[in-house]
Amino acid sequence: MPLPVQRRLLLSSFFLTLVFLLAGRANAELVWTPQTGWKVEGGALADVANKDSNSAIAFMNKARAAEEKNNRLTAIKYYTRVAKRYPNSVYAPEAQYRLGNLRLARKQYIKAFEAYQTVAIRYPNTNRYDEIVGKQYHIASLLLNGERGRIWGIFPGFSNREKAIGYMETVLGEAPFSDYAPLALMCIANGHQYLRNSEEAIDALDRMINTYPQSVQAPEAYLKLAQAHASLVDGAYYDQTSTRDAITYFEDFMILFPGDNSVVNAEKGLTNMKLVLADSKIKIGDFYFYKRDNFKAARVFYNEAITIYPGSSVATTAQERLVLVDAAAKKAESQPAKKKRFFFF
């Protein structure tokens, strides 16, 4: 049954008023001065007062008065009341933000990060969003560098680089298009490298160069990615997948950033990896030559060693082996073929 015209108009008016009030709240700005205390300026809610609003602003003023006297614990108490009792008020985002600042000043890094995170999640339209992301990045950087938080703001706690890596991932998720994003990925990679999580470090660096190829951190990421793959190389006798990957990224770095100051380091890394890869070919060639008398296979691998790093000491060794292979092959051809023996049962 359709609603009467008057009722429809009343509902429409109600929803329009609600939208207007919400928009007004979003545009409202919370301002503090020593003379007036906290005051809402701008927006439709600037002149709206009720019991909850009066209680919230009373707590806000008590908190700020304590904060001005450097009485952080008292300020934390009153800001916490506002945040918990009036989460939907215009004062809640500011209370949470100031809680983060106070916790940070007391070196309670985890609680500070969580306070900022609450603002970012619950109040994404806050005009402090970029500032909050920056503070979260700062906290994560401190923890990643081994800074220890304070228990109850007094006693030193333990370093927690694992949590710092998680915090950097949070920053990346909150602001994927900000200047903090590539920095966060580099920090994530550094943290994993410190913890010897090579695969995780490689993943972070790979995300960095693929997502932010134009970032000023890109050259460092390419070089670190090459070095990370190189760190997984166990020697010429083992699988050479990491060696090939390292060679690829060293070469990419030198092609993409020829004027970078770290090109010398990349050249050294590339030389070492080519030596390892070429030497691995020699080892395989030696197996076929000395253990299997398979001269054809031995030639293939010795020639591959020369191709990988021509002019090197390894290439010289491969050339010497090829001479020995040719001599052995000629000797084998000159000898009469062995007669096959048949067994009867």
Short key terms for the protein model shown above:
Serine Threonine Protein Phosphatase 5, Tetratricopeptide repeat, rod-shaped, mainly alpha, 345 residues, 69% helix, single chain, 14 helices, two-stranded antiparallel sheet, 4 strands, 4% strand
Structure report:
By secondary structure, this protein is mainly alpha-helical. Among the domains are: 76 residues, no CATH class; 92 residues, Serine Threonine Protein Phosphatase 5, Tetratricopeptide repeat, CATH 1.25.40. Helices cover 69% and strands 4% of the residues. It is built from 14 helices and 4 strands. The strands form 2 sheets. Strands 1-2 form a two-stranded antiparallel sheet. It has a two-stranded antiparallel ribbon with strand order 3-4. Helix 4 runs antiparallel to helix 5, helix 12 packs antiparallel against helix 13 and helix 12 runs parallel beside helix 14. About 8% of the residues have low confidence.
How many extended strands? 4
Largest sheet: 2 strands, antiparallel
CATH architecture of the domain at 235-326: Alpha Horseshoe
Q: Estimate what percentage of residues fall within beta strands.
A: under 5%
Q: Give the termini distance in whole angstroms.
A: 102 Å
Work out the radius of gyration: 34 Å
Share of helical residues: 55-70%
- Stated plainly, the CATH topology of the domain at 235-326 is called Serine Threonine Protein Phosphatase 5, Tetratricopeptide repeat
Mean pLDDT score, rounded? 88
